[in-house]
């Protein structure tokens, strides 16, 4: 299951999407200095942990 960029638009501000967004941005902030962690791998980690 692939998440396209256009498909991931938040139409309703539901709690799951907002918490996922906050989790993703906090992970991105924490691991910003690591070049090996890019957005795609973070998405895979987030999707696997659900």
Structure summarized in a few sentences:
This protein has 50 residues and is mainly α.
Descriptive overview:
This protein has one domain. With 50 residues, the protein is mainly alpha-helical. The protein is built from two helices and no strands. It starts with 14 loop residues before the first helix and ends with a helix.
Oligomer: single chain
**Element pattern in H and E:** HH
User: What is the helix content?
Assistant: 40-55%
Strand content: under 5%
Number of helices: 2
**What class, by secondary structure content?**
mainly alpha
Record field, number of beta strands:
0
Sketch the major β-sheet: none
Low-confidence stretches: none
**Average pLDDT taken over every residue:** 67
C-alpha-based Rg, rounded:
11 Å
Distance N to C terminus: 13 Å
What spatial form do the alpha-carbon principal axes imply?
A: globular
**How many domains comprise the coordinates?**
1
Topology:
Layout: H1 15-30, H2 39-49
Keywords:
mainly alpha, 2 helices, globular
């Amino acid at each position: 299951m692939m998440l396209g960029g256009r498909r991931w638009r938040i139409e309703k501000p539901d709690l799951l999407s907002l918490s996922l967004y906050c989790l993703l941005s906090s992970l991105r902030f924490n691991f910003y200095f690591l070049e090996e962690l890019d957005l795609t791998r973070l998405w895979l980690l987030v999707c696997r942990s659900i």
